[in-house]
Amino acid sequence: MKGFIANYLDKENKNYGPFFVANIFTHETEEGFPYQKLILYNGRGKTVGYSFNESQNDKIYKYIKISGMKFKNGNLEMININIKNAEIVELSIENIGKTLNLNTAEKKYLKEIHGFIDLIQDAELKTFMRNIFTYWRILVSFTRIPASLRNHDSKRNGLIKHTLDVTKIAVFLARNFSVDIDVDLCIAGALIHDIGKTRVYRKDYRKSKYVYSKKANLLGHKYCGMKLIDKFLNEYCYLCENQHITLANIFLNQHSADRDVAVTIEAYIVKTADEMAARMNVILPSGEIREYNKNLKKFVIDTNLLLNSENDVINQ
């Protein structure tokens, strides 16, 4: 499920929201009575709510019990909230930012992402992209994880910052080419070109860093990105076949591509923008260029390359 945002009020109309209701699971008690488990987010973090019936014979869920949250009244005990008093709130970036506990920078980056989506002229493609970038499972990791673990944009927020850099370059290239180009697909492709990384990086809290998941080592982020987009295509049938194929071609032509796969001009633009953004990120303010040394397992300065005052690369 995509999720929704709601303000929940108790019987005295005290507001405990807004909460981002990310998922709802239906279960049964040992006695066979139904209840629901809700995955909830708000500005304080993630919590779990349980919705029950007011009587065992009543099949309508009437209230939610939320535990583990310290509300403004300091109460850490179970709190009952009337579902009947729930007020569904617009699924906007502002409200998502409040409920997913994003910091100021992350909210700013997310608004920039949606600013690029607003540039898309095709209504169906725009709706498709908005569905992707209001989906909580993607946003929680997309706004925080690095773009790479050993190369460019390797710190927190690296992926969303790199995505913005790639999209800016792709828009510039697409609008300045002399051939006929689908600018909408260039924007969409740039925004989702690395979205598979939300499925292949995981946080190792013991080591306090991000690591590759088993899925990453076996399948890679291109495959995981394709599967993720296919999931959205099956759930939201907005795109025509040509748009679907072109977006898939952009994924397939990232980094190394199969020789039997043709390259559309849109895929070439996104690939070029991706490479440019990644290389620009490893240039230090001093003009020195860093690279990851696999033997030392750390970044080192490449003494063979420096930038002069005119920003030309000079071989030393």
UniProtKB/TrEMBL annotation:
SMART domains: HDc (SM00471). GO terms for biological process: rRNA 3'-end processing. Transmembrane segments: none annotated. The keyword NAD does not apply. It comes from the Bacteria. It holds the Pfam family HD. Residues 155-288 form the HD/PDEase domain. This is HDIG domain-containing protein. Keywords: Hydrolase. GO terms for molecular function: hydrolase activity. InterPro entries: HD/PDEase_dom, HD_domain, HDIG_dom, YhaM_exoribonuc/phosphodiest. It comes from Flexistipes sinusarabici.
